[in-house]
Amino acid sequence: NAGVTQTPKFQVLKTGQSMTLQCAQDMNHEYMSWYRQDPGMGLRLIHYSVGAGITDQGEVPNGYNVSRSTTEDFPLRLLSAAPSQTSVYFCASSVSSATSETQYFGPGTRLLVL
Amino acid sequence: GNSVTQMEGPVTLSEEAFLTINCTYTATGYPSLFWYVQYPGEGLQLLLKATKADDKGSNKGFEATYRKETTSFHLEKGSVQVSDSAVYFCALDSNSGYALNFGKGTSLLVTP
After folding, report:
1. Residues of B with CB under 8 A from a CB of A
2. Cα-Cα-Cα-Cα dihedral of B76, B69, A104, B75, to 10°?
3. pLDDT for res A98
4. pLDDT (tens digit per residue) in B29-80
5. Alpha carbons A109 and B43: distance in angstroms, whole number
6. Which residues of A touch B55 (CB under 8 A)?
7. Cα dist from A82 to A14, A43, A64, whole Å
8. Whether pLDDT at A97 is above 90
9. Which residue of chain A comes nearest to B97, CA vs CA?
């Protein structure tokens, strides 16, 4: 299994540009999440999905859109990038369960918005 | 709401020293608690977890005990190695399965 994969690894954008960060998992996990990591802030939840067709907002959703058309893929879209969105983005997945299960993280996408 | 507070770093230790990284939490109900580790340039990996009070998680010589009375989940290792140099994150999940609340991370540097 490849686990959780993310592309690209690194991206530079200009303010106002749009882009999609890709995330895929091959573990048949129902739950998927997007986090951003900023210095001194830990990781903060942007959006999450509990299954295909079901998404919801996390702690810091503004400026980001998501969709979940398949179990495997959970792309994160920036419609109009801003310098405040410079960050490292991590995608994670986990099995659905009545109790907390381990989240598996991708390697991250480093985004720089100029 | 839920929150996690962990000691600020960076922490610098000599090889074979004892490690403690403090973590306390605020949560309603009975959350599960996790320690994740991030090696330079990589994503996060689960180090250990505990799902109920008094549980002890352990892995690779690291241990942490879920203490409900003190709302703590301190990470310990008896003898650190240079290869343990990384950033360590304490996190909790109120049984959602998809939403972890993270601490800010503690950077550990182990010198030979």
Report:
1. 4, 31-32, 34, 36, 42-46, 49, 51, 89, 93-100, 102-105
2. -10
3. 61
4. 889 999 999 998 888 999 999 998 999 999 999 999 999 999 999 999 999 9
5. 10
6. none
7. 8, 19, 11
8. no
9. A100
